[in-house]
Amino acid sequence: MEAKSIVIGVEGMTCGSCVQTIEEHVGKMSGVHRVNVSLEDENAVIIYDSKVQSPAALREAIDNMGFDATLADSNPQPVLLDTVFLTIPTQSALTSKQICSALLKNKGIVDVKMSSDQKTAVVTFVSSVTSGKQITRMVPGVDLSVSAPEAGEDPSWGAASGVVLRLRVEGMSCHSCTSTIEGKIGKLQGVQRVKVSLDNQEAAVVYQPHLITAEEIKRQIEAAGFTASFKKQPRALRLGAIDLERLRNAPLKENSAGNDTQTVVFRVDGMHCTSCVLNIQSTLSAILSVTGVVVSLEKKSAIISYNPNLIGIDGLRKAIEAVSPGTFKVSLPEEGEHVALFPALASPLKLSAPVSRDAGQPLTQVVVINIEGMTCNSCVQSIEGVLSQKEGVKSVRVSLANRNGTVEYDPLQTSPEDLRSSIEDMGFDASLSAEAELPVPIAQPSPPARLESQKSEPPSKALPAHLAAPETKAVSKCYVQVTGMTCASCVANIERNLRREDGIHSILVALMAGKAEVRYNPAVIHPSAIAELIRELGFGATVMENHGEGDGILELVVRGMTCASCVHKIESTLMKTNGVLYCSVALATNKAHIKYDPEIIGPRDVIQVIKDLGFTTSLVKKDRSASHLDHRQEIRQWKRSFVVSLVFCIPVMGLMIYMMVMDSQLSDAHAHHNMSAEELEALHASMALEYQLLPGLSVMNFLSFLLCVPVQIFGGWHFYIQAYKALKHKTANMDVLIVLATSIAFVYSFVILLVAMAEKAKVNPVTFFDTPPMLFVFISLGRWLEHVAKGKTSEALARLISLQATEATIVTLGPDNVLLSEEQVDVELVQRGDVVKVVPGGKFPVDGRVIEGHSMVDESLITGEAMPVTKKPGNTVIAGSINQNGSLLISATHVGADTTLSQIVKLVEEAQTSKAPIQQFADKLSGYFVPCIVAVSVLTLLAWIIIGFVDFEIVEKYFLGYSKSISTAEVIIRFAFQASITVLCIACPCSLGLATPTAVMVGTGVGAQNGILIKGGEPLEMAHKVKVVVFDKTGTITHGTPEVTQVKFLVEGNQLPHKKMLAIVGTAESNSEHPLGVAITKYCKKELDSETLGTCTDFQVVPGCGISCKVTNIEALLYRKNKMVEENNIKNVTLVKIEENTDESVQPALIIDAELPTTMTSQKYSVLIGNREWMNRNGLLVKNEVDRAMTEHERRGRTAVLAAVDGVLCGLIAIADTVKPEAELAVYTLKSMGLEVVLMTGDNSKTARSIASQVGITKVFAEVLPSHKVAKVKQLQDEGKRVAMVGDGINDSPALAMANVGIAIGTGTDVAIEAADVVLIKDDLMDVVASIDLSRKTVKRIRINFVFALIYNLIGVPIAAGVFLPVGLVLQPWMGSAAMAASSVSVVLSSLLLKMYQKPSSEKLEFRARGQMRHKSPSEISVHIGIDETGTGSPKLSLMDRIINYSRASINSLFSDKRSVNSVVLNEPDKHSLLVGDFGEDDDTAL
């Protein structure tokens, strides 16, 4: 009988119920051992008996249930089977046949055979379905027992020398994989038990460390094709006396004589996959006389270590052939072939001895091949894949950053030249590196050595040269992309936890870049395991493949080089320098481009190396002026264009005005003096400007032509270039329109002039030479003003960039931080770990940590926080902030592009270049706009020509400057051309294009100045459409850290003074790492005004209950405190004596603070702190009133903790995550803006309800998992609502990404970049209001801009085309261009008005909301559990409760400056708290 596994794809499942139905239905079918259905993967893995069932029948069975089933793989995989021997009791009630049939009815049992004496049953079963222990209980009424195991096997988990090893196994996809691993590892010598979990992707192995190592187990899992890593590094083996005795009696004693073991190499033909290899290995390793088996599929070989006294070579050959009769052909290799077949594989199965080195073994060699032409990781994988398949290649490592590949190979089978040509055949350039090939000895199986010799031999001797002594091996470095970090505490959390892990030397996390740089020991831990450790902390983590990202790049100017040998000298010296990865020096430009590892070497060290060679070197100066943002070049260009056009335009305008004045005088003379047309013509011709230089060429036209040509060439040069580029790319922009208008006017006029000269016309033709200069004047003026304005919009970013310091003072410190020397260096030369001195008034050049000094630092330009921030040793500082009043020494942590400031600049730059959807629409519109305008212009021309010839009177009536001396046809054509050119001039797609980007640039700039970073136009535009704002609770509405809100003393002050109790409790909790313990210690230190407390001993923690300990040495603390009290008393008594009019009845005792203890003895206190259960366990009775007080606190969402000293219950401490003071106002303001506000939290419903009532939120979703938050946001979106999600980003990042607008709250500079669209630099909820308000204002401004842009075009184009001619509205071309320039300028100026935006101030909003904000009563809040829509009903309130709630609401509205009920206790006493009984219990009073 044979068990097989098949994967069937199942579509149409919707929930867990479908999964259950399929598993139940298919599981009942005969021959089916196990069914595992996955809803996520949409498949079913079925283990079945191939004699009873077939894949097709199973697929049909699922089909018949109404699901779509498909066979994912038509070839079922064989399942690994296990065997157990059962002893049948002699007094059994059932016969052996009945026992057999009873066993076969159970799932997982494949076959049962009885021994001839009917006393033993051999049961074959599927190990992944059932186990030997379960089988013994399968037959009711019969006590079956497992037969004694064979020698060498120990079935128990709990063997004295057994060690439990947990490994993470990646790459398992089904239960067949788990069976393979369990089968393979379970057969290893020294492995007692193995259990593999597919769901957890882990393996638990119990093994005997004196027989097998953890590394060996890991290697065997990897040999099966899976990736394995230790979850916890196994401890070093320590052998006790029992272990040594056990080892001496190990079952392989017959092999202990080293001479008795021999090794034979067989050639095995007929193997075609890893399954064949595993079958041969498992079969042979089961033979007792075989001590080791290594089978190689590539070499078609099997190396077997065996005891020749027990088995011969022929017996082994037959054993291999018997594995699969007729498939495998086994022969002994030829002599020459024998060496080649010896593979480089160590640690065979059941290897009885440690691997050692033999001088006569073959060597492998390592060659480094330089590879050019690789572009990405895909190239790396292709090369590694091809080379690893070549015969003789042991390992391949290709580095994209270093552009080389390191290949370990067998020189007997391949050569470096052969490897190089293989790479070139793939299309890459490959050359052999100058480095010598490194021979690497490879360990082979050899006779077992004695334990003593193994212990005494140094480990490095038994290892290959390049793997020896991992302790001394260079530390490796990897980069991990980390998502979900929101603030400095996330960074500290990751750094603190990872530093504790074995194998990690150091870790540096950059919050803004979302990157962690880890230095680790590759012999102990791998990058994938590091990423997994970060993921376990609740962050997203992926290993960054391209390690080059962390490399430093240095551009230097090198002076003093004369020839190629200088270049070679510099390059060769640098490449030999440790830490330099790449170097290229160009003699022609005197520049050097160097890549280096900042962990090993710094830029200053590189410069020093070059200086030592005798060359002078300096940094290539980078442009830090943000000149690319100030539009300086464009402003200069358009200003020049405007001036040139204006110089030539003024004379043209003068000529035009003169002609207009003269024409009007002539028409007056004609009207009043009744002159004839002939006389008028003669008078016209006699005018100076109308004098003909040549027949048909007047002075006027000649001067106009001369003035127009330079403008057309120099003034219009830029337009022509841009128009040409646009047309070349088959697009039409503004420049095309301008070029069309000016060129048509110029060419038309020039051609008319030539025709008139050719005809020797007596009457001078009317030309348009005045149009181009006037057009260019207005357009270049418009463009000039536009760029001036655009430069202003980028001011915010330019200001951020200008914050960067240019130089830094680096100091050298001696012992005890004594200053030895200091030097000024360029900021780019600061290396990580440098100590930088910052004087008062100086800028911080890099991010760092203060190591000495105290000062106030102005961070306002980065965080928007106006108040200076105190900095003392241990605090972090940000590049660009300004040191105010004290010198500081800082240690650089992030330099160059990794600084917070650089990351913010990058973020703002990306935001300003990203397009809003409305802008994409405008761009699309502009694309159609130009062709349409050209078409309108042509239509205008044709329409007026037709109208003119049909009814000339219209043209004659409305054509200014009409003169009878011009022919009718010329008048009509001139009028038509004037109208069509004016249409081209007035149309402006520019203003449409500018409407959005200018507003977005100003909006994002203003946002950045106010501490709101908006990632581009889309979120800025989307935020105004938001209808629902969803708040996370912890860290967003609340502070995110527990604080003590109230302490109640349960004993009188004369029994235990309150200060003394706080000192005892604070000392007791000082050893606790629990957040509640930390909160208590912090509170006690604050109340006692002391940084140190007493001594804590015998500290014990019981998770979920509490702590117990002994506290001493608090007397000194209280004495210090009382000393201050005594001094205060003396001052107060003096004051009383000085008072002249002291009333006799006034006693000084009222002023004196407290009585002083006369004696000071050290005493030991026994302390218990914890919950009710902890007190009950320790025999302390919790009174009813105390219990009621605790219940009330718990109802309000607080944690109540009891404290007992020396067996007396003396205090009740209430701890809660307190609400931020501005939360209530922010929620109220959002509601008043017409938005729905929802609270979503993973916390319990009681706490959620309590927090919601304090901030005024009425809709709450409690106990929501992070994945459900996404579903909830999606649910709200499906209702047609636009959702903004406000979170602190750790568990909210999926929901932040799903929401229409994700708003992440940072703390200080700590900005969550990945998930959110809007980042609030300050931890202030009022900025949520400000971001939505800014979005509304910006979108409003964009709409106004569109109105400006469209008015010009919708009204201007018809006027220009002459539609309004009957009303008398006629435009000249220059008027059109002036209107067009005005539209662009007005749009930009309109956008600039946004710079006046002021954030809504809390004071104003508070004043407006005065009397309207109130805490919600529980009945007003609907709480929904999970993603369930039906809210839990609010608790029924008694009449008394309602009256109290009503009173409280009234008092809250009267005194609305009191934000939170909780803050009453810790801030100042509320004088109104006595008005409501309920408030009384928030006072520090004894019960």
Account of the 3D structure:
- The structure is a single chain.
- With 1487 residues, the chain is an alpha+beta fold.
- Helices cover 41% and strands 21% of the residues.
- It has a nine-stranded mixed β-sheet with strand order 42-54-53-52-43-50-51-55-56, with helices on both faces. Strands 34-33-35-41-36-39 form a six-stranded antiparallel β-sheet, with no helix packed on it.
- The chain is globular, with a radius of gyration of 44 Å.
Q: What Rg do the Cα atoms give?
A: 44 Å
Average pLDDT, rounded to a whole number, is 75
Beta-strand percent range = 15-25%
Give a quick account of the main beta sheet: strands, pairing sense, barrel closure: 9 strands, mixed
Determine the structural class based on helices, strands and strand pairing.
alpha+beta
| Shape, per Cα inertia axes | globular
Terminus-to-terminus distance: 77 Å
Helix content estimate? 40-55%
